[in-house]
Amino acid sequence: MSKIALVAAFASILSFPAFAGDQMLDGTYELVSSTRKLLDTGEVVDTYGKHPTGYVNYGKDGRFLVLIVWDKNDRPNPESVKLITDQQRADLFRTMTSYGGTYTFDGHTLEHHVDISWNQVWTGTTVIRDIQRDGDKLIYTTRPAPFAADGKMSVLTLVWQKTG
Fold first, then answer.
1. Rounded to an integer, what distance in angstroms lies between the CA atom of residue 40 and that of residue 37?
2. Domain 17-162 belongs to what topology?
3. How far apart are CA 123 and CA 141, in angstroms?
């Protein structure tokens, strides 16, 4: 094998850091459900209300973006952009999650390497999700961590359905 062919083969392997073997994640997934177990009491509650909306997109280039908003009944509904209050802005911020960056996936563990976030505390960190597949659904389980909205130690379980 020529040096050029060897370099090209090696470069093609490096260009897909986001998956292991046939464990590709690329595509868009819609949030189906999300629950949170409070570690101090064992109580299981809806993480983002009964009917949250969310999407996560995984690119073949190893980048991802997540956006989740709480149930619309749990979010302010300002009359207009012109009339929105500072309290409504703060409450809208508190009832969403959004972050992006690069990801790696070994078939069981997904690492989100966060380089942009709605919550600057997450920027520059790595968040880990343990993953199970059920057809075209991904079931995430987070590692124990303080929940961003209230600081309570929690484990979240999110179910995502691949779209299209």
1. 9
2. Lipocalin (2.40.128)
3. 20
pLDDT(66) > 80: yes
Looking at the DSSP bridge assignments, the partners of residue 34 are 158
CA distance 127 to 103: 10
pTM summary value = 0.82
Nearest CA among 28, 19, 27 for reference residue 105: 19
Distance CA 121, CA 136 (A): 32
Q: How many CB atoms lie within 10 A of CB 43?
A: 11
Secondary structure class of 130 (helix, strand, coil): strand
The Cα–Cα gap between 122 and 159 comes to 22
CB atoms within 10 A of CB 139: 16
**pLDDT value of position 131:** 96
How far is residue 77's CA from residue 72's CA, in Å, rounded to a whole number?
A: 8
More confident residue, 109 or 4: 109
pLDDT at 64: 98
Beta pairing, strands 96-105 & 145-146: unpaired
**Structure confidence at residue 2 (pLDDT):** 53
Q: Which residue has the tokens 């749990």?
A: 74
